[in-house]
Every structure is written in C-alpha cells, then in structure tokens.
Amino acid sequence: MTAKELLEQAPIERYEAEVLLAHILGVQRSWLFSHGDEGLASDDEQAFMAHARARASGEPLAYLMGYRNFWSLRLIVDQHVLIPRRESEHLVEWALECLDTGEQKVLDLGTGSGAIALACKSERSDLSITGVDQSEQALACARRNSEALGLEVCWKQGSWFEPVEAGGWDLVVSNPPYIAANDVHLGQGDLPAEPSGALVGGKTGLEMIEHIVTEAPPYLRASGWLLLEHGFDQGEPVRALLSDRGFSHVATRKDYSGQPRISGGQWLN
Ligand SMILES: C[S@@+](CC[C@H](N)C(=O)[O-])C[C@H]1O[C@@H](n2cnc3c(N)ncnc32)[C@H](O)[C@@H]1O
Questions:
Q1: 102 with 132, same domain?
Q2: What spacing in Å lies between the alpha carbon of 91 and ligand 1's midpoint?
Q3: Are residues 167 and 84 in the same domain?
Q4: CB distance 198 to ligand 1 below 6 Å
Q5: What residues form DSSP beta bridges with 68?
Q6: What is the pTM of this model?
Q7: 196 lines ligand 1 (CB under 6 A)
Q8: Range of the domain at 11
Q9: In 113-168, where do the E strands start and end?
Q10: What is the tens place of the pLDDT at every residue in 39-74?
C-alpha cells in the first residue's frame, strides 16, 4: 500500500495521521507529499494502523510517539507523566525573569517529565535546580530526559517540600494538579489518559496550590519568588492566597490565548 492510500484509510484526523506516519517511517511530514505514491513495508503499515487505532480510541499522540516538544527541548513522555503544555512555557519565561545572575537555587515542585526544570536549566546552566515529584515513575521519566539532554538536575521523590531543606531557595515554581475532582474537563481531550495524580487538585482544585502557598515561606530566601500555574478561573483565589500568606508584588500573567494562568509573588518578609 502507498503512503497516500494508508493515510486515506486511517481512522483519525488527517493531520494527526500524517504526523504519526512520518514518525513511524522516521521521515519529515513533507516526505509524505513527495513520496506519497511509493509502496510501504508491511511492518510499517501494520505499526501505523495499530497506532492509528489506539489514537482513535483516545490514546494521546504524545504517548504514542513517546515525546512532546516543550520550550526548545524534545521531552520523552509516557503514561506516568502529564504531557507538557504550552502554557507552562510562560512559567519558564517568568521564572527566568525572576532570577538574578550567578548561581541561584530553583525548586520545581511536581516536576513530572521535568519539563519546567529542564527548560530553565537549558537556558541557565549555572542554576542549581531540584525537581520534586511524589511519583517515582514520573521521576524515572524526568531522569531519562535529563540524561538524554545532558542537563543536570537533582531529582527528589516526596510530597511537595518534604524532601528538601528549608531556607535558601531563590525561586519555587510549580505546575501542581489544580483541576476540581468533579470537573467535566477531566473527561475531555487527552486528560482521561493522563495520570489523575497529575491533574486532580482536590475537591475544589485549589487544595494543592493552597498547601504550597502556605508552606513556601520558610523555604524561600528573602526576596525569593513563588510562581504557580493554575486554571483559567483560579487567578483571583490564587492571588488572594498569596496576599493573605504575606507575599508581595502578587501578580497574574496570561497565556497565549489571553487566559490568566500563572500567578506569583515575592517573599520580602
Ligand atoms: C500538572 S503535573 C505537572 C508536571 C510538569 N511540571 C509539567 O508542567 O509538565 C503535576 C505533577 O505533580 C505531581 N504531584 C502530585 N501530587 C504531588 C505531591 N503531593 N508532591 C509532589 N508532587 C506531586 C504529579 O505526580 C505530577 O507530576
């Protein structure tokens, strides 16, 4: 069968079928247009149809392909980690702005695939970064990424601040689980296939964020920053949590589609 014929039979959306077939053949997507009439090996045909059927039944493209591009990095992902989102690149941008020159200590809480920690390290090799996750399987993925990319990060398993020492952190960043347990979005898109421990933040969705905001101050150095990703409708409550805890310069930033998605504050006390 030719690439053109195979794409026509795929039970999934055309663009995704092209991306998947190019991935299986190990070619650029554009190759499919210039070589669309060439016959394919039957192993490739079978592998493609198996992947396309899995995609049609809800398996995320990133898990099928085994990677997702984030910032300037190609990150390995598997079913134990959240698929890194573009919104989190804003967290990386803001994090880099908060940091002084010279060696700085950065803590990434709920690091998952290591996306935020590794993107920061890729921009500033002088940073000393620690990534924490409760999930040992997520940390295994983060470790694979740091090895593949040659970016050194210290990975620690445990709950939020529990595995690190208090004091001295210049910046704490986190994209914690923040979706309410009964939110209908949990049944949509890639979310049903992603680990619920990476998504659900409790009954209201704010529980993990509240915990991190409450616990953060003794871990931050004076003038250190705490930056948090959150849901599009959580900007106001997250700012209130930060202000009530005593953070200064509390602010929210918007994502590419204009939604308020990241809030942070500076610990000046
Ligand atoms: C929304 S995902 C973010 C993953 C990654 N930082 C990113 O932006 O792609 C949240 C992560 O928090 C981790 N997590 C959940 N509860 C935790 C806890 N109590 N302590 C540490 N990490 C936790 C999950 O395992 C998951 O990897």
A1: yes
A2: 14
A3: yes
A4: yes
A5: 75
A6: 0.96
A7: no
A8: 3-57
A9: 128-133, 154-157
A10: 999 999 999 999 999 999 999 999 999 999 999 999
